[in-house]
């Protein structure tokens, strides 16, 4: 790996795939991609792309981080995209009656705990550049102040908890490694599998392509190196209230 390595966790998703394709379109950049899937990206395992498989258990995270470490080199961007809104067993709760322990646990596990476990193992074990830029895909819906319409209890609260964990980590990390910057990123409604069932009422101009969002994210991450703490920003680079 050369010096400009970007690490993408949750690499097979719509936004992650666009980010990876954008980064490897630059000749001087490479990507280490981590996914549950072996087949998430048709360009996998080229000279610029190292595709690793992990099931996101702590054992697997530890061994994947060791594999990344053995490759050597310095990481200068980390992008964590794992998130679920709906799947075979989970769907957003409209009202109190829809709440279940199992569903809340699934949301917290995937949207909150997995990203934080990755950060724990990556930051403590890898050689991270002094000016590393770290972005985690959050969502505006996780803003407590912005919550005007309610609903989607599990997804909303899992992203709010993610934001609090990130802010807490950024405060600790500022003391230990002041050049590292953190970004909690709201991509806007993006045309991926995650938003597909909920796009009917979204105006065409407000439904972004993953390519547009990837470009915005990477541009914002470049600028974020000037800050030493954490920002909660949307796709336009505008602050979202915590
Ligand atoms: N699309 C939107 O409109 C929108 C809006 C606001 C926020 N976001 C956030 O943006 C992020 C990326 O979303 P996307 O639109 O690209 O969605 P996506 O295409 O569905 O990708 C979701 C990602 O989450 C990971 N994931 C899904 N289920 C998982 C599970 N059970 N365990 C561990 N990882 C799991 C997948 O990683 P693997 O590669 O490991 O399978 C995948 O990369 C998410 O955090 C989402 O909450 C999206």
CATH superfamily: NAD(P)-binding Rossmann-like Domain
Q: Examine the coordinates and then state which fold CATH places here, giving the name of the CATH topology.
A: Rossmann fold
Strand content: 15-25%
Question: Strand-and-helix sequence, N→C?
Answer: EHEEHEHEHEHE
Helical percentage = 25-40%
Largest beta-sheet characterization: 7 strands, parallel
Low-confidence stretches: none
CATH-defined architecture:
3-Layer(aba) Sandwich
Sheet with most strands: strand arrangement: 3-2-1-4-5-6-7
- The secondary structure category is alpha/beta
Which key features would you list for this structure?
242 residues; alpha/beta; Rossmann fold; 7-stranded parallel beta sheet; 5 helices; 37% helix; globular; binds NADP nicotinamide-adenine-dinucleotide phosphate
Question: What's the quick description here?
Answer:
The chain is α/β, with parallel strands linked by helices. Helix content is 37%, strand content 18%.
Report on this structure.
With 242 residues, the protein is α/β, with parallel strands linked by helices. The chain has a single domain (5-234), classed as NAD(P)-binding Rossmann-like Domain (Rossmann fold, 3-Layer(aba) Sandwich), CATH 3.40.50. It has 5 helices and 7 strands; from the N terminus they run E-H-E-E-H-E-H-E-H-E-H-E. It has helices at 14-24, 58-71, 101-125, 153-176, 210-224, and strands spanning 5-9, 30-35, 49-53, 75-80, 128-137, 181-186, 230-234. It has a 7-stranded parallel sheet with strand order 3-2-1-4-5-6-7, with helices on both faces. Helix 1 packs across helix 5 (210-224) and helix 3 (101-125) runs parallel beside helix 4. The longest helix has 25 residues, at 101-125. The model has no long low-confidence stretch (mean pLDDT 93). NADP nicotinamide-adenine-dinucleotide phosphate binds next to helix 1 and helix 3.
């Amino acid at each position: 790996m050369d010096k400009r390595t970007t690490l993408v966790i949750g690499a097979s998703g719509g936004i992650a795939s666009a980010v990876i394709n954008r980064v490897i379109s630059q000749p001087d950049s490479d990507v280490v991609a981590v996914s549950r899937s072996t087949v998430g990206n048709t360009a996998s395992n080229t000279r610029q792309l190292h595709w690793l498989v992990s099931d996101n258990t702590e054992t697997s995270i530890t061994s994947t981080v060791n594999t990344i470490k053995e490759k050597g080199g310095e990481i200068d961007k980390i992008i964590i995209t794992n998130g679920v809104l709906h799947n075979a067993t989970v769907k957003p709760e409209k009202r109190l009656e829809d709440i279940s322990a199992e569903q809340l646990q699934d949301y917290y596990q995937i949207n909150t705990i997995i990203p934080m476990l990755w950060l724990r193992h990556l930051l403590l074990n890898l050689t991270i550049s002094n000016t590393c830029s770290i972005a985690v895909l959050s969502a505006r819906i996780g803003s407590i102040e912005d919550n005007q319409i309610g609903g989607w209890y599990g997804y909303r609260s899992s992203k709010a908890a993610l934001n609090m964990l990130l802010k807490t980590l950024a405060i600790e990390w500022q003391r230990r490694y002041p050049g590292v910057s953190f970004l909690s990123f709201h991509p806007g409604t993006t045309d991926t599998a995650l938003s597909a069932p909920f796009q009917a009422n979204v105006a065409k101009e407000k439904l972004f392509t993953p390519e547009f969002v990837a470009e915005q994210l990477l541009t914002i991450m470049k600028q974020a190196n000037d800050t030493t703490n954490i920002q909660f920003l949307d796709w336009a680079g505008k602050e979202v209230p915590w």
